[in-house]
Amino acid sequence: MILVFATNNKHKIREISDLLGDDVKILGLSDFNITGDIPEEAETLEENALYKARYVHDRTGMNVFADDTGLEVTALGGAPGVYSARYAGESKSFDDNIDKLLAELQGKEDRSARFRTVIALILDGKEYLFEGIIEGEIISERRGDGGFGYDPVFIARGYDRTFAEIPLREKNSISHRARAMRQLITFLDEQSRGAE
Ligand code: IMP
């Protein structure tokens, strides 16, 4: 099976290719000369992921999936959520986003938060959604220099180190993205078994 992953992020493509093994070949947007970011202007992760998947399906006619992720903070009513990448503005600076998050949470007792990834799949013209969540909390100052985004201030439940302090391998095995990818993989396995 050949699937297009609607991303230009080579790390994400490698990660899912490793998880999927040899039966599924993953192509990225660069294989179709689709360069630049696909607009992410919807108000939910689900709509953004579906928009990206449809955008690529319309242009390639291929089976395709797309992902979208947000950090949802309880005390902030689920913000930054779908706006996580540009929380502090269009410069999309990880540092500015963390500064803003810590400022918004100052004095708040409830520090609980979760990362949520949604994957939209278009397979043989039908649309499917998958979700992966990791619960945790936001600490009040940065720790560690691995990972990216909000990793230095996020501690997953059951851990005492941030996502920026634990080895990338470990993060990638428990993360929201990995969980959503596993849902997708289980579904694809079931589909291919049903087709045998
Ligand atoms: P995307 O949908 O994967 O592009 O993620 C949107 C935004 O969510 C990123 O720009 C980051 O700010 C944040 N984010 C997504 N995944 C992670 C993660 O694994 N760690 C920390 N921040 C993340």
Task: Reconstruct the topology from this structure.
Layout: E1 2-5, H1 10-20, E2 25-27, H2 45-60, E3 64-73, E4 80-81, H3 94-105, E5 112-123, E6 126-138, E7 154-156, H4 168-174, H5 176-195
Parallel strand pairs: 1-2, 1-3
Antiparallel strand pairs: 3-4, 3-5, 5-6, 6-7
What descriptive keywords fit this protein?
7-stranded mixed beta sheet; alpha/beta; 5 helices; binds inosinic acid; globular; about 200 residues
Molecular structure report:
This protein has helices at 10-20, 45-60, 94-105, 168-174, 176-195, and strands at residues 2-5, 25-27, 64-73, 80-81, 112-123, 126-138, 154-156. The protein has 196 residues and is of the alpha/beta class. The protein starts with a strand and ends with a helix. Inosinic acid binds at residues 68-71, 84-85, 97, 115, 147-151, 163, 175.
Mean pLDDT equals 94
Percent of residues in helices: 25-40%
Number of helices: 5
Bound molecules: inosinic acid
How many distinct beta strands? Answer: 7
**Topology pattern, helix = H, strand = E:** EHEHEEHEEEHH
Shape, per Cα inertia axes:
globular
Strand content: 15-25%
Short synopsis of the structure:
The protein has 196 residues and is an alpha/beta fold. It is 34% helix and 24% strand. The chain binds inosinic acid (IMP).
